[in-house]
């Protein structure tokens, strides 16, 4: 088995380009041989938010607060208690929290810091999958359009982000994207040499020719992105690469190509431990080297870029630059809404009226989308929608085809946090004891008190909200989705969520 070496090709290239000195090279080697810390962000709209925060507070090794984001850090996987690890794994799968490297949180943090100064209302995340950065943005109520060209990765995106109302998901190539945006997050494909703490590839398979190939792709992505920016719009360009061919050389080439129309924004105050970008690197004379990789002969203020080495934040390696266009550099016009899969619901929609009346839902028609096959109703925040393959967060989904009765649809857990407070009917309060019995079998109406029986019997078959009422219980006032049958009450809680509930009750010593 090969051993990692301080003399690997990547380290030599970084030192020759002035990224590392001899001391920093040794520091990079030492930290590169250690596992990454486990960093976790809690979904602030999750009903388990406070419980998870209490558990993580008591078990993590460190808590960082960056721009109102609490990040819980364990030094490595071995320092995570076994039961806490199970809770994290389960909560991540259910989108109640997110695993995310500290360095990859910085691009969204840069956008958040620039929102007010540059009037950012809409963001396009152009290479969004698997969605950790996107989820960070939507937590701040920014309307995000998330795109990925790979259909399988788009499915991952939809799973990660379907609990947010201010999201629009696309599946197309960059040159097919419509609409214009105030800000574009371009976390570009790269060689990933900054991932040396979790991957062996940077140590043994890193090749300069791969960086040249990536450089060409990255330039194409930024050029296409510029066409989709509003006037005075901003591009946040980032990679998990440390070498200048995929970093400063790309930024320099764009600044040179659009001379005077684009400026670099200094973001070092947002990432105080970040290093200055470099303005000098090797000029490669190989036949594979694009001329756009050549170092600048004029001053382009490349020191305003930020490079993060693993030893700077005990993370991976990363590069970030913020570019602002002074005026529109494209004649492309804004496109009209083109929702391929969804249409907006109006107040006369028969199905929606049925939901509204049965649940006594407060009027929210202006924020409801319907899938064109009537299989799904989603909440969204009213922004223009282009080419959507998934939008908003699911409220109701169809159980049976060709059936338009109330019982053919069910409430969705993903969107329940958006509307549970707006639902006035079809709610029942249960003790924790009764609720836990539901995980094993439906409970006959006759098992409940007369008051609860009367409530259940007056409603049609279909979804219901179950609210836990038990003082001094960690689940007091928690709400879940249930199902009213003809004579029984059942649950609509997934196996994974039941597992999380049991883990939490056990951790808080509740039987």
UniProtKB/TrEMBL annotation:
GO CC entries: cytoplasm; nucleus
SUPFAM superfamilies tied to this protein: S-adenosyl-L-methionine-dependent methyltransferases
SAM-dependent MTase RsmB/NOP-type domain segment(s): 28-326
UniProt KW Methyltransferase keyword: yes
PROSITE patterns in UniProt: SAM_MT_RSMB_NOP
Active site: 240 (nucleophile)
Keywords, in A-Z order: Methyltransferase, RNA-binding, S-adenosyl-L-methionine, Transferase
Domain of life: Eukaryota
InterPro entries the UniProt entry points to: MeTrfase_RsmB-F_NOP2_cat (IPR049560), MeTrfase_RsmB-F_NOP2_dom (IPR001678), RCMT (IPR023267), SAM-dependent_MTases_sf (IPR029063)
UniProt record similarity statement: Belongs to the class I-like SAM-binding methyltransferase superfamily. RsmB/NOP family.
UniProt protein name: tRNA cytosine 5 methyltransferase putative
Organism: Entamoeba histolytica
